Amino acid sequence: MIETWRWFGPQDLVSISDVAQTGATGVVSALHHIPTGDVWELDEIRKRQREVATMPDGSPSGLEWNVVESLPVSEDIKKRSGEWRAHVSNYCQSMANLAEAGIYIICYNFMPILDWTRTDLSWRLKNGATCMRFDIIDFAAFDIHILKRAHAEKDYDAKLRQSAARRFQEMSEQDRKQLTENIVCGLPGAAEKFSLDDVRAHLNEYSDIPEKRLRSNLVRFLAEVAPVAQDLGIRLCCHPDDPPFSLLGLPRIMSTEEDYRIVMEEVDIPANGITLCSGSLGARPDNDLVGMMQRLGDRVHFMHSRNVKRETADVRGSFYESEHLRGDTNMVLLIGAALQEEARRRDEGREDWSIPFRPDHGQDILDDLGRKAQPGYPSIGRLKGLAELRGIIAALEPRTEMH
Fold it and tell me: If 0-12 CB within 10 Å is exposed, 13-18 middle and 19+ buried, where does residue 234 land?
């Protein structure tokens, strides 16, 4: 498996020198400064490659930018309205430019309006570390009492509505402002940052787009771009919804194994693939991550190896980002299934037999607490996760190769 590390560019407080010291060989990055829907020009791609390849002192880093996360899909494409045709054309041109630069894996998502969502970016654990958390009561309080979405209360049962009302009353104005910023203003890697009024306007535009239509829009988008990617040698990999259930009354269409199976069958070419994120999918108790790798592994082009601890048994519930080996997903079994998939690909003679993965997210520990890097992307917390995952691979890989 190819060890990678997410890097947000020169402004990232975890430097390329830090990344090189982790032992990872690949970098996962994106051109976040380019507006969604615009073309990623070759010059900009080459510039980021040089930044990845160079230490702050000018010496070679030994690192390579080998996964894009994300080449964002615009809201116009998701809604199939406005400038969607131009954006699809630009998406294809960006893929061509990435291929010319030698980058062949592109992660993206199809979540409407909000990308990945958390209510707390620095939730304190008993040991003093902090992590990100999604609290369903906080989210309901935001939805009903801050955003004041029309008919929002219908999406929550009576007990949750009562809890949300109490939580809202207990919040200070600063608490309410911080919650809003956490949810609305965009987390690291989010394609766009919105105001409350922006969210309300987008929600109105999605009011006539049910789950079936949004899935159809994804399939039609892939029918247009995946054949181009196939010709370019690019592997597209869709990231699951995060959290993997409906928020703000919006449809979520990439939350379960069945969601992925449908989309893989509808556009049945190798370029149309999966980002298997064990944290996002693992937030639902009804998702079988190991089985998903075993059954759909042929199309897994990229993995996010992280873990969460669910606080309820409900499909839609609260959870927090756990240590990589102490959450609800059995990471040993999942990595074992990935190694078996790699062995199968190797036997088939596939050039893409080795699956890139990254230690996604991490708890802020030790010096991370003072560094205050991108939320969810600390230096030491992720390094701890990478070391743990590396240990699993070292223990299992010889056994896998014997089969």
Answer: buried
